Amino acid sequence: MLDARIPEGPIETKWENHKFDMKLVNPANKRRFEIIVVGTGLAGASAAATLGELGYRVKAFTYHDSARRAHSIAAQGGINAAKNYHSDGDSIYRLFYDTVKGGDYRSREANVYRLAEVSNNIIDQCVAQGVPFAREYGGLLDNRSFGGAQVSRTFYARGQTGQQLLLGAYQSLARQVKAGSVELHTNAEMLELVVVDGKAVGIITRDLVTGEISRHSAHAVVLGTGGYANAFYLSTMAMASNVTAAWRAHRKGAFFANPCYTQIHPTAIPSSDEFQSKLTLMSESLRNDGRIWVPKDPDETRAPADIPEEDRDYYLERRYPSYGNLAPRDISSRAAKVVVDEGRGVGPLKNGVYLDFAEAIGRLGRDAIDAKYGNLFEMYERITGEDPFDVPMRIYPAPHYTMGGLWVDYHLQTTIPGLFSIGEANFSDHGANRLGASALMQGLADGYFVLPYTIGDYLAPQLGSEPVDTSAPEFDQAESDVQAQIDRFLNTNGTRSVDWFHRELGKILWEHCGMGRNRSGLEKALSEIPALREEFDKDVRVLGSGDTLNSSLEKAGRVEDFFELAELMCRDALTREESCGGHFREEHQTGEGEALRDDDNFAHVTAWEWTGDSGAPAEHREALEFETVQLSQRSYK
Amino acid sequence: MNLTLRVWRQAGPDAPGRFETYEATDISEDSSFLEMLDLVNEELIAEGEEPIEFMHDCREGICGTCGMMINGRAHGPQAMTATCQLHMRSFEDGDELVLEPWRAAGFPIIKDLVVDRSAFDRIIEAGGYISVDTGSGPDANLIPVNKDDADLAMDAAACIGCGACVAACPNGAGQLFTAAKVSHLNLLPQGQPERDDRTTSMVEVMEEHFGSCTNMGECEAACPKGISIDFIAMMNRDYRKAMFRNRRTA
Questions:
Q1: Do B147 and B237 fall into the same domain?
Q2: In this complex, do B118 and A541 lie within 8 Å of one another by their Cβ atoms?
Q3: What is the 3-state secondary structure (H, E, C) of B154-195?
Q4: Which domain holds residue B198?
Q5: ipTM summary value
Q6: What pTM was estimated for this model as a whole?
Q7: Which residues of A touch B125 (CB under 8 A)?
Q8: CA distance B86 to B75
Q9: B10 and B73: one domain?
């Protein structure tokens, strides 16, 4: 059993008391410590900026050309906080409770409470930085409700909340770069973690422009490197989003927790052809007025407007009469898959369902719909060439967030001392399902308000020690491993592109470890993935050289890691013999098709240890104790 | 649809560049412009030729990574649209497209269609922030902001930092990018204490890297987020005021 180092005491005072109990590094001594932060999204940029302000010597790394580009930037909806500015009954406890319940009782209570607790500080910090949140006419902050919550707790900046929060963190980081406390390395991809005497002491990076491999050492290493939904190939992630930093840390001893917890968002635009590169999300708010349906007849050929009511199947309204089109994300996604699998999908590839506004336009008028959704309709038309005022939208679920990640304790430290993980890269706060507007909250909570405290407790006893010299044999070995991998890719001289393998891997994963999972499918995937991997090893074609910009080469390393991760996702899904949140095992459902948890046997985190063989990882567990919240079955009937 | 591409290929920052001609065949009009390039690259790889390097990441018009000149226009023919949001239905079967990297002295070429935009980061580092240490902000509602100002600040803050403004400018000027950030912060009450220093420092660094603005307005036309050149006027006004005040206190 893993020890999460959860402090004693009532949940309301754990964090406050623990902040006092943790060791401090005095202000003058902070400059004697070096910290590496990898990733400059919300979590990484906020952490690097804050650590720099505190006086630590920080080295920040991003593979982007600027610290302003991480995929946090694409988050649209907003960020939750328990400000209760509208006196509508919100509180830290309610945000905590909603998050634990929304996570289907598979998250760690103490972490979630702390998240809710610091949520208010995040809003204060961001406003002080100049984040242009939406305001009311009196000049105070506006809120909206989101993701099924019964209170208005979501702060937003038009549809660009993630962008504005990231720019706030990036600007704070820029201030520290200017001040000299943060050394920022752009176009630098971490390819190896260096561990000496069991502790994380450095990383190996490759400069994506010059190909130069370099060694960096520090007293601690922080990974804020995002999620792994791109394992599915088609997802709402940015093209470069990958698992490599986290995965290479995993191979060096960091346990990987709950990899099977992936969130499939119900309203993305379906792919239009085999060569589509990514999926674009349409805001979930559209489901407030759109009705979701497919034709009853799989051989239907008429245009949607010509299909009479009696030949349409409003399947969400039929199956979930009380929630209807607003059924939760996981339920809606799975229901769409069922009708598409029955051959009743719509569009040229029969891979979508209609989201139809005709009824709402008739009821509320075109102007009202335009005012509410005009910009979304325009975005849809830009991509599909179809005007939702004339033709129903076509939507289909898409992977867009991963709840699993590197296992961390209450200090956000992984199983390797000195290696911390923050934001989506860790597994911490969302359990088996993340609520809307909570990802931004967690990234910034970790970076601004949690890690800067907990890392001091690790560093304080090391006062006086210098970072490990980069000429240590462990650095030699790590660098030569990196170089060997690059040489191997460049010398394989196969026949197929990296993208081809990634696409094939994505198909396997989506088919067998996507919205619905079952034993035989997962076992099939566990035989197909290693077979494809073997082909990849023999037949991948990476042209060009290692000493210039070479995106195929970058991608080859990332896809190789996705192969191993994909296997672990399937193994984790196979091992978890229950359904919870985003993990739906078809064998474990109620008579009405709802997810059926097994709290007696699975109220735990599964954390996997790399053993050197991707086919045989070692399973570890962290028991989840629910002292505050009562476990109950979610129901949406 | 079938198209002919004339693409700028350049092996490295110091290597000579040249146009190469490629055929893009059987392209679906529903595919995005970058997916069309993906397909061309797949074919190049199959033929043993190095794929075309181009800038891209989120492919939903928000990260600001993508951008190239398409037939001489930054981000191509469609207004208010980043390269990644362009779709092939904007083009005709048989079109010839000339693809070049951002053209500006401030953005040196790295390879093919990829340029170095790090000068933008230098401008932000010069003062594109509000100096507030983590945890030191007061309660968020203690700073009321006039809604019109907040909305205008958001209009400016919508800049994605892609560099189309510089690429479209005949002078390679960086005014629109810089003005967007200066205005975003200068419009807000939180931004007032550092207003003068911010404006002068950012303008000075901008001028180290980029050409001079002569009010051509090409930047606004090319901007995928529709950032208005009014912000350049606002920045110029703030800059003069700051210079005047500095002279008085010197």
A1: yes
A2: no
A3: HHHHCCCCCCHHHHHCCCCECHHHHHHHHHHHHCCHHHCCCH
A4: 117-249
A5: 0.98
A6: 0.97
A7: 174-175, 177-178
A8: 8
A9: yes
